[in-house]
Amino acid sequence: MGPRDVLVFHNGVVLIDLIGGLLVAGYAAAAVRILLRTGAVARARLLVADGAVLGLGFKTAGTLLKALEVHTWDQIGMFGAVLAVRVVLKRLFKWERARVERGRTAAPP
């Protein structure tokens, strides 16, 4: 793999990370818009949770691809810590989404 290939690979990883961040920001903006227009808090929370899960999926994929560039034990430790935090956050957002969904179906119209 030549220097040009490494640069293309690195740029691809950065693009995947950027897409993840844009997804989170886009879903959060959409949730704020819904909240301001309709006041539907549960719907806005679901939208934020969906965006966070989707965005974190992209960010986790980027982190896994970055693992190919890991060379020292410090980098391996940092990679493991970042990956663990992202996995925990993703699970928490899925849990929150399920909790809000249960609350929406249990609440009277």
Euclidean distance between termini CA atoms: 60 Å
Largest sheet, described in full?
none
Average residue pLDDT:
85
**Uncertain stretches of 5 or more adjacent residues:** none
- Helical segment count: 3
Elements, N to C (H/E): HHH
Number of E-state strands: 0
Query: How much is the radius of gyration in Å?
Result: 18 Å
How do the helices and strands line up, and which of them pair or pack?
Layout lengths: L2 H36 L2 H26 L6 H34 L3
What would you note in describing this structure?
By secondary structure, the chain is mainly α. It has one domain (3-106). It is built from three helices and no strands. Helix 1 (3-38) runs antiparallel to helix 2 (41-66) and helix 2 (41-66) runs antiparallel to helix 3 (73-106). The longest helix has 36 residues, at 3-38. It starts with a helix and ends with a helix. The model has no long low-confidence stretch (mean pLDDT 85).
Summarize the structure.
This protein has 109 residues and is mainly α. It has helices at residues 3-38, 41-66, 73-106.
Keywords:
single chain; 109 residues; mainly alpha; 3 helices
